[in-house]
UniProtKB/TrEMBL annotation:
Taxonomic path: Bacteria, Pseudomonadati, Pseudomonadota, Alphaproteobacteria, Hyphomicrobiales
Organism: Mesorhizobium abyssinicae
Taxonomic superkingdom: Bacteria
Name the record gives this protein: BrnA antitoxin family protein
Residue ranges, annotated region (Disordered): 1-30
Pfam family, one: BrnA_antitoxin
Length: 79
């Protein structure tokens, strides 16, 4: 019984196979949550002055930001 060669018979084909571009997996489509009024954890960047404005009244500043954003988009149709 003969042993297979340690090196590929065609080094160029082996090199091309090693560096062959792979397909990226498709990004899964995110479906909206089924439950209404469920909050979602997100990360955003806002100016320090805006953050200070909402935090100056103490705890609940995230709710105040959410309420302000909700009032701003209140007149627009939901997608």
């Amino acid at each position: 019984m003969t042993t297979p060669p340690r090196r590929p018979t065609n080094p160029m084909a082996a090199a091309e196979a090693a560096f062959k571009p792979t397909k990226k997996p498709a990004i899964p489509i995110r479906e909206p949550s089924a439950a209404p009024n469920v909050r979602e954890l997100v990360s955003i960047r806002i100016d320090r002055a805006v953050l200070d404005h909402f935090q100056e009244d103490g705890p609940g500043w995230q709710d105040r930001i959410n309420d302000a954003l909700r009032r701003m988009v209140g007149g627009k149709p939901q997608d």
